[in-house]
């Protein structure tokens, strides 16, 4: 072994040679060991913790202390992105993966069951030598030349044989022995930046038989889309790695659903996928570099159909895969899916559709006239970049009330709290605002400025730094509040900009639809309480759950919905907020907790 090489031992995972001078996170990645690093190793999320068992050095200790407690430091816990081993080292991985609540349900409007793939059972007969056979009739009816394997299958049939034609968009894609009309299935898939959901659908009845979900494995390459675009562009084989990770995940979900429901993968004929524009590019192995630089143009926007084998999906090679269309780089197929679920293209009302998450996307429809925008809300709303933030899983605080000299908390799973998730941080800050623990600019007040003794007792003052204790060592810092203000400023400024574009006010909006993984956990009171939504919206909000998956279901079961979603693509305008006059000024005003003067 060279002088510049050492050995990394990972408990339970084996030993690996590594080049001294690289950080531990990159060494782990190179050897196929992926750990959570939402910021893609940039050193500002504090999530990539490992425990150093042997070979510990204290270089860069002050940087680690920004994210780790003294107890963790003493135990040898370090952030792998900041830790550079100098010699042989032994470590243990820390299980940071929460059992996350994944939203797999969504509202479905009325629709007809008319899938693109259909089956037709036949009995082969030859009436006479003078009459064309069934086989000849089939060959003549096809507008395209049939694949040779189908012709060979036809030639093997004997008179009286029962067989089933499988047609996709009226074209024969295969022939099956016997009557298989009762076995007609498909998958509807939502690929989110954070989570992936797949539903098994009976295409004859329209019934959702089962669903399966997973954390998007691409999180190991970065929490947000820009981090993943950056990884794809800068790392050798980066696009391939990101694509393979999501394909492997889909294969696992598909296999799980088929096994659990005793269905052969050969009876899966159609898959519809809704996802944001970056996720679609990465799914297909398309380099997303054009999405990360001005003017942010996607390589493709239209809805397209592919063969499953072209995507390396371990499913029948006759299965078709339809990816829904996107409006722009930042308004993806997940939003166009939500648009048809919400009927934004046909509504006779003024409807605002919002998908609140890391990327806050929204469409405002004025009697079918649609305009969309996207605003970078950031990861705070999903519990990231928050001092004690975690995803919405078991042990996460999701609700908070400050009343009667106490802080009452709601914890997912009724377990001991291990942190606070996005809905919890939003509700907590709404409570801080309601109880006047913060001023309108978001600054935590000094103890001396408060009259209530209990409120004074939950404020920690460390010199000029102040924070609020929720329970035990779970706190909200001034920076946490700023992170949420940035998110709420982004969402609110988007709402105001769209309304201004259509010459509407908050009072003019008839209905507000909130969709998505994060939106489902939010309380209207919290959204209004921090000024993310105007007070005029308080009685107009409807939650529709995972509308991305619901839109994929619609396109799977009703072929006309594929034309409808194309109509959204063709008729939805896009408003680039950064190009608007004085948008920066509007955004700055939207950071305040006092927004009445804006609306």
Structure description:
The chain has 599 residues and is of the alpha/beta class. The protein contains 16 helices and 26 strands. The strands form six sheets. It has a six-stranded mixed β-sheet, with helices on both faces. The protein has a six-stranded mixed β-sheet with strand order 25-24-15-16-17-26. Strands 2-1-5-3-4 form a five-stranded mixed β-sheet. β18 and β19 form a beta hairpin. The radius of gyration is 27 Å and the shape is globular.
- Count of extended strands: 26
Number of helices in the DSSP assignment = 16
Helicity, in percent? 25-40%
Mean pLDDT: 89
Reading off the top of the CATH hierarchy, the class of the domain at 186-323 is best stated as: Alpha Beta
Question: How would you describe the shape?
Answer: globular
* Largest pleated sheet: 6 strands, mixed
CATH topology of the domain at 186-323: Nucleotidyltransferase, domain 5
CATH H-level superfamily title of the domain at 186-323: Domain of unknown function (DUF4445)
Low-confidence stretches are 128-132
Task: Give descriptors for this structure.
Nucleotidyltransferase, domain 5; 599 residues; six-stranded mixed sheet; alpha/beta; 16 helices; 26 strands; Ubiquitin-like (UB roll); globular
What's the helix and strand layout?
Blueprint (H helix, E strand, L loop, with lengths): L4 E6 L3 E6 L4 H7 L18 E6 L6 H5 L4 H5 L2 E3 L9 E5 L23 E7 L10 H8 L6 H8 L6 E7 L2 E7 L7 E7 L3 E8 L5 E8 L9 H10 L3 H23 L7 E8 L1 H7 L20 E4 L12 E4 L9 H9 L8 E6 L3 E8 L2 E8 L19 E8 L2 E6 L7 E2 L1 H13 L18 H5 L1 E4 L2 E7 L2 E4 H24 L9 E5 L8 H6 L11 E5 L1 H11 L2 H12 E3 L8 H8 L9
Parallel strand pairs: 1-5, 9-12, 12-14, 15-24, 17-26, 18-20, 24-25
Antiparallel strand pairs: 1-2, 3-4, 3-5, 6-7, 7-8, 9-10, 10-11, 13-14, 15-16, 16-17, 18-19, 21-22, 22-23
Helix pairs in contact: 6-7, 9-14, 9-15, 12-16
């Amino acid at each position: 072994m060279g002088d510049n090489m050492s050995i990394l031992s990972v408990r339970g995972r084996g030993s690996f040679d590594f080049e001294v001078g690289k950080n531990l996170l990159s060494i782990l990645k190179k050897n196929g060991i992926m750990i959570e690093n939402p910021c893609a190793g940039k050193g500002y999320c504090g999530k990539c913790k490992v425990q150093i068992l042997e070979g510990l050095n204290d270089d860069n200790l002050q940087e680690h202390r920004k994210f780790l407690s003294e107890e963790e430091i003493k135990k040898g816990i370090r952030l792998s992105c900041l830790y550079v081993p100098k010699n042989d080292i032994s470590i243990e991985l820390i299980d940071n993966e929460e059992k996350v609540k994944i939203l797999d349900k969504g509202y479905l409007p009325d629709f007809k069951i008319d899938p693109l793939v259909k089956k037709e059972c036949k009995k082969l007969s030859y009436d006479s030598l003078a009459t064309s056979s069934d086989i000849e009739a089939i060959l003549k009816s096809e507008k395209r030349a049939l694949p040779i394997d189908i012709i060979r299958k036809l030639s093997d049939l004997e008179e009286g044989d029962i067989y089933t034609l499988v047609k996709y968009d009226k074209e024969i894609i295969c022939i099956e022995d016997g009557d298989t009309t009762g076995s007609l299935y498909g998958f509807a898939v939502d690929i989110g930046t954070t989570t992936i959901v797949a539903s098994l659908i009976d295409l004859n009845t329209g019934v959702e038989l089962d669903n399966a979900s997973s954390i998007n494995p691409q999180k190991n390459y970065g929490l947000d889309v820009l981090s993943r675009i950056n990884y794809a562009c800068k790392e050798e084989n980066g696009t391939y790695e990101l694509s393979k990770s999501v394909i492997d995940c889909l294969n696992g979900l598909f296999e799980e659903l088929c096994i659990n429901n005793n269905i052969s993968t050969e009876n899966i004929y159609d898959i519809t996928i809704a996802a944001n524009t970056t996720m679609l590019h990465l799914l297909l192995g398309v380099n997303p570099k054009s999405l990360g630089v001005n003017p942010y143009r996607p390589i493709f926007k239209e809805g397209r159909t592919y063969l499953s084998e072209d995507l390396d999906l371990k499913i029948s090679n006759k299965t078709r895969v339809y990816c829904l269309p996107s409006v722009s780089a930042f308004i993806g197929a997940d939003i166009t899916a939500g648009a048809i679920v919400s009927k934004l293209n046909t509504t006779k009302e003024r409807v605002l559709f919002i998908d609140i998450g890391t990327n806050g996307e929204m469409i405002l429809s004025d009697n079918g006239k649609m305009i969309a925008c996207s605003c970078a809300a950031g990861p705070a709303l999903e519990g990231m970049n928050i001092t004690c933030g975690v995803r919405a899983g078991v042990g996460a605080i999701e609700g908070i009330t400050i009343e009667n000299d106490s802080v009452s908390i709601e914890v997912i799973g009724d377990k001991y709290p291990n942190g606070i998730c996005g809905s919890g941080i939003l509700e907590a800050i709404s409570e801080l605002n309601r109880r006047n623990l913060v001023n309108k600019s978001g600054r935590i007040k000094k103890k001396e400025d408060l009259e209530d003794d209990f409120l004074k007792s939950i404020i920690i003052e460390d010199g000029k730094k102040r924070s609020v204790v929720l329970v035990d060592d779970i706190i909200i810092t001034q920076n946490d509040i700023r992170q949420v203000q940035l998110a709420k400023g982004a969402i609110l400024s988007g709402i105001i900009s769209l309304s201004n574009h259509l010459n509407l006010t908050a009072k003019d909006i008839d209905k507000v639809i909130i969709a998505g993984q994060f939106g489902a956990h939010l309380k209207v009171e919290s959204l209004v309480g921090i000024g993310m939504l105007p007070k005029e919206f308080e009685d107009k909000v409807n939650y529709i759950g995972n509308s991305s998956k619901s839109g994929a279901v619609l396109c799977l079961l009703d072929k006309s919905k594929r034309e409808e979603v194309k109509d959204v693509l063709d008729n939805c305008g896009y408003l680039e907020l950064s190009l608007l006059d004085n948008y920066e000024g509007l955004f700055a005003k939207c950071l305040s907790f006092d927004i009445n003067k804006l609306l």
